[in-house]
Predict the 3D structure of the following.
Amino acid sequence: MSYFPRIASQLYGEGVALSDLAQTHGTPLYVYSKKAISDAFMAYKNALGKHEGLICYAVKANSNLAVLGLLAELGAGFDIVSGGELQRVITAGGSPNNVVFSGVGKSHQEIQFALEVGVKCFNVESSPELERISAIATSMGKTANISLRVNPDVDAQTHPYISTGLKENKFGIDIKTAPQVYEFAQSLPNLNITGVDCHIGSQLTDMTPFLDALDRVLALVDTLEAKGITIDHVDIGGGLGVTYRDEQPPAVHDYMVEVLKKLEGRNVSLMMEPGRSIVANAGILLTTVEYLKPTEHKNFAIVDAAMNDNIRPALYQAWVNVENIGPSDATAQSWDIVGPVCETGDFLAHDRSLSLSAGDVLALRSCGAYGFTMSSNYNSRTRAAEIIVDGDQAHLVRERESFDDLIKGEALLPKSNQ
Ligand SMILES: Cc1ncc(COP(=O)(O)O)c(C=O)c1O
Ligand SMILES: N[C@@H](CCCC[NH3+])C(=O)O
């Protein structure tokens, strides 16, 4: 039954052969390991230990309902950036009381929804947003807990598109002006100041920027305390990187130890918003080689997954580990792994030395974060199915989209008379 148990078990210690999954469910197919997700989350939770706080998983990394449900069961809170993500958390069984609402552009409707269900806190990113939340809360006879997302102007040393804590980024409130904005928040009705929040970027592989940002946030907490503004929690965002190739990010435990050291002697709880570090290495994208197309200049392996399934290589020049679970007896050559989408930027990997034959199944590793959630229907391609492997059981947790799903809700214009 298991044709490639070695590879399957090497991946995450799970007993399901990837080739069987590809055969049963077709490709492209996202496969996640329940154990890998649980272990990664528990690393945060255990490191937090008895310190008061909440690990709010960043839903944008992987919002599959089964993933959210699993994390809710393990005691996660959630970091959301839209009404849709809030709905997903609720549908998956997560408690709105454990939700923090981030994002620079919260709409009237989204704020109202969040107040109706009672989210834990709004991470506010501007003064006009404060005014909007205050007005909506007042009209609903509710009080909104708020923290300001401050921008500490720290270089996260990551890809510029996923760096968020520099003053030229759209995110957060300049930490230098934050005390005045807190005073403004204090003057508005139906707001309750509970925290300070920051998130400086994603895929950080060095601890220093995190700790620098935390120092600046704690200095702000002191300034606020001196003004009589009490801060109950500090939210240090997400951002811890993972190994895609040869990066060596700090271990979750080591990172947490350093963070908690800085909080020693302070009466603040710790909130965090990790996404990638919980799900990235727990997921694989399986794809089948459709055609081999050697040319004079390059060898192309055209596979059935594309940039619409995983846009990270095209968008961030992200490197993805590609493994042939074939097996192929062809001799190894250098291949560009490309998809069927009509874009030159539609590639998954460049210049990989692989033995390939048409029909082989490739595993793209570490695709559990920002993989499916960033997928689209570009070229009217249906989105992949998602599977969670739990020991030797594989659960289909999202069906492959059908052509009917693709055109659902659309309508033709009435026929014109001319
Ligand atoms: C506000 C906020 N919180 C949390 C995250 C999650 O970050 P990561 O997946 O890098 O842990 C992000 C994404 O960068 C974010 O923008
Ligand atoms: N989507 C990004 C990270 C998230 C950025 C969100 N602030 C990635 O795939 O690396």
About this structure: Residues 5-32+280-407 form a domain with the Lyase, Ornithine Decarboxylase; Chain A, domain 1 fold (CATH 2.40.37.10). The chain has a mean pLDDT of 93. The radius of gyration is 23 Å.
